[in-house]
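Changelog-adjacent note: as of this version, every example in the card shows the full chain rather than a window. The one below runs 301 residues end to end.
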Amino acid sequence: MNSNFCIVTLIKLTWLTTVIALQNCSNPNYFYSDNLKKMKRFEVPKHAVPWHVPFPKYQPPEFTSQHLPSEPYADPDIHNPSFKPKWNSVDGPTDRTSYEQSYRILNGYPLNPRGRTGIKGRGVLPRWGPNHAAESIVTRWKRGEKDSTMNLSSGKPVLQVVVIRRHGCSEWTLPGGLIEINSDELITLQKQLLEEALNLEFDLPPEVVVRYQEKIGAAFVNKTLIYRGYVENPRNTDNAWIESTVFHVHDEEYISVATLPLPLEEESDRPMWRDVDFSLPLFPGYYELVKKIASNMKAHW
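Full-length structure tokens:
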């Protein structure tokens, strides 16, 4: 897909109305393993991205990870005779509906509603068609020894947000992940934030884990839904893509998520607190969301 390709989605919510540019990954390669093995995407001119535009020369490479079939939540090979998905509907424990619109099926394959991506197959995603995710924008006010820190140039308080840079990506994203079978948005968000924040590959005293689990749970009681829909993601393909729900959680009094023991310096695959301003290196769609939140909270930008 052309690196300049941009999809604009109008978000209408009770307190937030904005236009978000959800841009495609600028890298022409599709990365499919931890050691950054890659496959080159078929180049798609901007005008030929929509499916309704004829593009007879379009012959993208096909890739479906061989590591996924062993996972209990992953779809089988689409040509498996026993695989009879109910597209655009809730299919047993799997929700195959799109948050935005019904998607087309061509020769048995679901088609990405945003158009051609330069690679077909399921890629590294577990499900054909929409893969639902949940992400959170977690904020707090930056504090000095006693009070909130003010930016000297704008005279406004400085907001901080939890961000994370995934392995192999230059831009940062939000904490969250794909929603597993028999789970939901809130369970996914709280589980991901807890695991990533506390770095749970290391042994921690059970009482510490429980304490932060309770803090995270308390914070999400006052969550605000700010976006639900398609998101551009480097894992998307012609036949599998990510749609996400994004919530905002703010800890005004430093009694819940604001106290998470996150690093203040970047560590790969670890969330961190980052001052909110125009230089925030988030993926474009998330950048606009955080910018709008800062504006609504009258924070420095």
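Structural remarks: Residues 1-26 have pLDDT under 50 and may be disordered.
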